[in-house]
Amino acid sequence: MNRFHILTLFPEMVMDGLNTSIIGRAIEAGLLEINAVNIRDYSTNKHMKVDDYPYGGGAGLVMQPEPVYRAYKDLEKDMKKKPRVVYLTPQGTTFHQEMAKELAKEEELVFLCGHYEGIDERVLEEIVTDYVSIGDYVLTGGELPAMVMIDSISRLVPGVLHNDDSAGDESFENGLLEYPQYTRPPVFLDKEVPEVLLSGHHENIRKWRHEQSVKRTKERRPDLWEAYEKEMKEKDGGK
Ligand code: SAM
Prior knowledge:
By secondary structure, this protein is an alpha/beta fold. It contains eight helices and nine strands. It has helices at 11-18, 21-28, 65-76, 97-104, 121-127, 143-154, 202-220, 222-235, and strands at 2-8, 32-38, 51-52, 62-63, 84-94, 108-113, 130-133, 187-188, 191-192.
């Protein structure tokens, strides 16, 4: 069982977003648990305020440290060990598949979602273990990034995908993008499904798919292709 705790000002957003399809089924099956904690519940202000103006001036509001700290401490007290706490921020390391694999090994993970101009630095210094971005652009809050991360981590948890093999062939798993996929009908807008896929010849299908993966990776992600070629050369002993 993997447990994801999300510290957020908008718990309904993450709960509604994650409780569907494959992830929803995995929650129902008891393979995953999602616990969204409303940071606002930990405000001691009579108007339940959680933000204030930035010291030093400038636009926007900053989330105050105390409610975030209290919300985190309340979670931590019931955990066996100090969890990894991921702060979603455009200033973090860019999320990738290897990171998803590594995080899938953790039984409990805490995701901290910022809003407005972000969160007071002092509480981040105190509780955050990982600063993660989902790309070089700025969103209004950390909820969508947390959902992106939880979705990709969850599908690596054994049993979440019905056929565990289907994570194995996927893009990035072997350093390449996945080959193109086809299903019925055999002809669509005069385009036929590649003949080899109808041949039943497993070795030829495997070769064709590998060639397509290579072609696609070279065209769409030359950076990945370069890294793949380098790794293959190293495996070959630099020949
Ligand atoms: N002032 C911050 C800066 O310039 O780095 C941006 C704050 S952003 C408007 C509000 C919140 O959205 C952040 O605290 C973070 O939690 C989340 N966020 C925005 N873009 C993100 C991204 N690319 N990856 C992860 N989280 C992001």
